[in-house]
Input
Amino acid sequence: MSLRKRLKKHEGSAVDMTPMLDIVFIMLIFFIVTATFLNETGLDFTQPNAGGEGPPGPPSIQVFVDAANNVSVDGEGVDITTVQFAVESRLANAPKASVTLTAHYSADLDPIVQIKDDMESIGRKTVLKVVGKP
Output
């Protein structure tokens, strides 16, 4: 075989990449369209202004978590598992009362999150406050 024939054979054997690029772009569009984005909520640690107080609102049920993770509802010590029931019993006497969750800055987050989730499960929005020196 002559050199000219061998060179002619190699010139015609190019790989066409267009179909592969089409498939890649179709897959990219598919994954973008089918992707789901999570909307996760977090704890709101914004502190109220130290300015003057506004007009008095509805009564508030105070839930406190101290540095040793002991929980009290309106000054009465309760177990973490019974916080929801203690708040519900106080809501029977004052149905429009709000719930204020006050936590010491060195308290663990687990009881705070559990109490906040318990209050949301009974339909009460909870105001979160952090006390103590950072």
Observations:
- DSSP finds four helices and five strands in the chain.
- The domain at 60-131 is CATH 3.30.420.270 (Nucleotidyltransferase; domain 5).
- Helices lie at 3-11, 18-34, 83-93, 109-121.
- The radius of gyration is 31 Å.
